[in-house]
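Bumping with the actual sequence this time:
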Amino acid sequence: MTGQVTAHLTWSPALGRPDLLAPATTAALHAWAAGDPRVAEQVMVAEIDPALADTAALSAAYALPLDVSANCVVVAGRRGGEERVAACVVLATTRADVNNAVRRLLDVRKATFLATDRAVEESAMEYGGITPIGLPAPWRVLVDSRVPLAGDVIVGSGVRHSKIELPGELLAEMPGVEVVDALALG
């Protein structure tokens, strides 16, 4: 079923198109595929106009329903002098509940979005393309429980000129992912 959601884009297996992925994303996909052969078959990538990488523009230009797009936002907070960082994956029709759910999960007094320049530098991914696949090991990857239920979902690829499509169920099973009820509002 992967690749069926979006007839307006040309999808191909992501592992065969490293030119459409951030290096960290490529490395993570290879490692993940070594333990789960579904990754090679079901994680797809499509080239897009980088000017249309933002969800609303992408959806309009390529006739993609918003309920199959997932956004990945990076949030941080401090506790006892220790910074705690998490990438939160939520459907585009919702928004991460940073002030309550994420703050509690990080066990911090206050959680805020990580500054764009830091998120880009530390993830080694482009702004507007940050994906949960290939993030730094210390970062938690929190996925709202509605994402796996969405069927195939579209996420960033680590670069602005492409998007990844994969089953939400598979994303929920990615090593290091924590599926969380009520991570998002809306």
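The tokens above came from a reply further down the thread. The chain has seven helices and eleven strands.
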